TrEMBL record:
Coiled-coil segments on the chain, per record: none
Domain HTH araC/xylS-type: 145-243
Name assigned to this protein: Response regulator
Record-annotated Response regulatory domain positions: 3-120
One GO biological process term: phosphorelay signal transduction system
Lyase in keyword set: no
Gene3D superfamilies: 3.40.50.2300, Homeodomain-like
Modification 4-aspartylphosphate occurs at: 55
Transcription regulation listed as a keyword: yes
InterPro entries: CheY-like_superfamily (IPR011006), Homeodomain-like_sf (IPR009057), HTH_AraC (IPR018060), HTH_AraC-typ_CS (IPR018062), Sig_transdc_resp-reg_receiver (IPR001789), Tscrpt_reg_AraC-type_HTH (IPR020449)
UniProt keywords, alphabetically: DNA-binding, Phosphoprotein, Transcription, Transcription regulation
GO MF annotation list: DNA-binding transcription factor activity; sequence-specific DNA binding
Amino acid sequence: MHSILVVEDERWVRAAIKRTIERTRLPFTVAGECGNGLEALDWLEKNRVDLVLTDIRMPVMDGLTFLDQLRERNRSLPVIILTGHESFSFVQQALRAGAMDYLLKPVEVDEIRPCLEKWLKERTLAVEPSGPPPEKEAGERSPVEQVIDLIRKRLPGDITLTEAAAAVHLNASYLSQLFKQRMNRTFVDYVLQVRMDEAERLLRHTSLRISEIAERLGYSDISGFSHTFKRLKGRSPSEFRKTLGE
């Protein structure tokens, strides 16, 4: 059975798509549902799936940005775009960005069946893993490499030096020295930089409010978040977002 992630902001539409897929009687099952592109990116960090069906028009992160972000992460996961007649120009953009096909809404059995059959036919024997890229075994990586991986996995949340040291079975003071030697910056500065890079990505690619981004990154105080962002990025979150429209 092949797994599908459905990305669509309307819950009832997701339910209708799921029923339509079931009615094709093809070997597919809906393994996950997300309400926008950002949710889908988060979901795909922890889950494997064979295929994605995504709407274009969604709040927070639209389907085209989701597709771009997916490709930036070197994920060649097949994506089928769902859209209405009025947004055909977006379909062209999506196909240029690497979408494998598109379907017009409402999705009907007679339309989705040949699309899924096409995917089955084109699937080669050497199927590339659709989930997160395979990782080295922990024993093959240095403690600092393991900590860097842990920091990125904890995003958007924070992580302390003590927690990181415990994860790699080292003394916190020793890890701190090791990290600075290897990365040429302190553990705290590195974590802060990674979190502000994530804030920049969210400001650039989503419609989340600044307060929502601060909360997502674990900041209870928006002024503290804004101050930190400005210190590292040279301008406040609101100033940064204004430049995107210029």
